[in-house]
Amino acid sequence: MGSAWWRFLVAGAALSAGILVLPIALPRNALIVATGVAAVALMVLGVRANGVRDRLPWYLLAAGVACWSAGDALWTLLADVLGVEPFPSVADAAYLVAYPLLAAGLHRLARGRLRTADRTAVLDSLIVATAVGLVLWVAFIAPSWTDAEGSVLARLVGVAYPVADLALVTQLVHLSAAQRSRTPALRLVAGAFVVVFVADMFFQAAAYIPAVEARVAWLDPLWMGAYLLWGAAALHPSVREVGESDLAPTEGLTPRRVTFLALAVSVLPTLVLVEATLGLRIHNMEVTFASLPLIGLVVLRMLGLVRRMREQSDRLAHLADTDFLTGLENTRRMTVRVDDLLVPAADGSVRGGALLLVAIERFTEINDTLGLRTGDLLLRAVGARLVAATPDGTVARLGGESFGVLLPGPTSSDHATERAAEIRAAFAEPFLLPELTVTVDVAVGVALAPADATTASDLLQRADVALSAARESRDLVARYAGQMRTGGPSAPQLMSELVAALHADEVVVHYQPQVELETGRVVGVEALVRWEHPVHGLLGPLAFVPAAERTGLIRQLTLHVLDRSLAQAARWRASGRTIPVSVNLSVRNLLDPHFVDDVRDALERHRIPATQLELEITETMAMLDPHRSVEVLGALDDLGVLLSVDDYGTGYSSLAYLQRLPVRRLKIDRSFVDGVVRDAASAAIVRSTIELARHLGLTVVAEGVEDDATLLALLEMRCLAAQGYGLGRPVPAERIPDMIDEIEARVPEVVGLRVPLPRGA
């Protein structure tokens, strides 16, 4: 059906153009009848072939066209075969039956799948109908009814035609106003009715204007054209979209509607002006009677428009104060609320309150690995949980992964900190999202008003400073303190300087030894990044690495550390020392399609065997997207790189699940290692982890060894290696050789060996 509609239209247009050259009326009328019959058949077949769901309006239109075509056939029989032209006749009966069927079809199309009528579309159609009705009354209805020569039946039939035309115009305007989309099929249908209306007006005018009566045969192409447009509309593929709108009615005024309604209203003064200019009788009474309902309809239309504008204004005001994703209040509204709490009362007192800034940890990783859709669902779920956890406060989303919780009224520092801890505890339960379960942690920064700030902007800024401090603290909660103002540079400031610092070699690498417990040998070093900032001094990784992960600079930072570490390993190798190096990765590295190639190139560039490089990932990082992790880590394992899991025990995975990944080593987090001597539970966790890892073929490195007692306890548990301040602090590369000699001289005595085994044995 894709091209059938225009083939039919083009062929029919050629025939309608040639109809004027036929000298005999019978062939011309027979061709018009044949076109009408073809149009009816194509309308029925077209809606079926195009899969129109609601076929009733098209069947009503087809029935109306069939009646019209029957009227043409009866008129041809009477006028061209029998040679009589009675009025009224049975042909008029067929024509007049067609009008209500066509109007009903248009009405059904206009309603579409809306359950209620579009109020504005009805008002627009009635406004136009009033204006057109006045013109038809003056031009055709009144003259037909007052015709002294006609019988009552003839006058009734004569009046029925313009009244029926008015009904079609009303429904056509209703259809045009109600349908949102202007599909080709809809345009073809509208065009057919416009052609019918024009032809009808000229045909009725022929009774009063001799010049039109003399050329009435010229109207034949118009009747035929209407048939062609009806048939083509049903054949067009877009016919299935007409009347299928699920949208709610709209009350907007488009420029097209405004112009159309303005023209309709201007008909009244234009009619009086034309009659006065031509010296005709001015129909003052008729214009007055038409003006009353027209004014009422326009007033109703304007009232609807005003109501719509008020609703839109309220909605815009709501949107201006609302976060579009979560439906919570936004920063603007939260700022207003804080300002209200800081306004002094009549007695000079300030109500004040506590502002808790809550941020989702590792949210960027979740977005990158699980996708933006999952990230959006998580943000909504986090917002809902915050609302449930703080029924006495107001929750707002302040942007990104950050939320604000405003607790109005006087609040002590201890109470606010307790509330922050309660909020963190509320996130112990995982989020059940569609198709997956996600567990997240949050950091909370606390600022009090008016103790910490007397304006909303200052309070938000200081809560943000507290949040940055919370992300670096162990319990992820921090209360704003005055010394935080100058305690260090802000993350945005550091990120703006980081790229230049990488090129200027201000970002350096320190190394911390890893010691094999049974022998006391140093079996490798972990590369730890530092920033020798020209203003703020030596910065640790917590000052800039989390922000680098959030801003995407972590890729450049990781590659910089990898390159510097392998270059240093090459220098140690050239001096006769083979020291494997361990480099920490970010989740963005696992998502980087070029990372495996970057590692391969770095190894080849510095001529370091892949077995001398260890890459560390966290278990949380691996669990966010296990499929991608297996793919990338598998490729790194194929290179020969040793893969390990850092900070094991702080995430939510299990050894059995990690066994699916090609990792060969676990590094137990310092929070468990620190308690193996004095805490039986920590000792049991570490011992069971070491035992299970050994059965799974994994070696274990314990982090955070601070003293010899912990070292001996780990040795008794048959832990392979350890690192920590009790063995050696992170130091620049040039100090590593001397530190290794010191460790390998001291640790064997601690573990009961007199001398270390020869290097390389």
The overall average pLDDT, rounded, is 84
Distance separating the two termini: 83 Å
Assembly type: single chain
Strand order of the largest sheet: 8-9-11-12-13-14-15-16
Outline the low-pLDDT stretches: 754-761
How many helical elements? Answer: 29
Question: What do you see in this structure?
Answer:
The protein has 761 residues and is of the alpha/beta class. The protein folds into three domains: 4-244 and 256-307, Rhopdopsin 7-helix transmembrane proteins, CATH 1.20.1070; 331-487, Reverse transcriptase/Diguanylate cyclase domain (Alpha-Beta Plaits), CATH 3.30.70.270; 506-666 and 719-750, EAL domain (TIM Barrel). Helix content is 58%, strand content 12%. The strands form three sheets. Strands 8-9-11-12-13-14-15-16 form an eight-stranded mixed beta barrel, surrounded by six helices. A five-stranded mixed β-sheet has the order 2-3-1-6-7, sandwiched between helices. A two-stranded antiparallel sheet has the order 4-5. It is elongated and about 135 Å long. The protein starts with a helix and ends in a 10-residue tail after the last helix. Mean pLDDT is 84; it is low at 754-761.
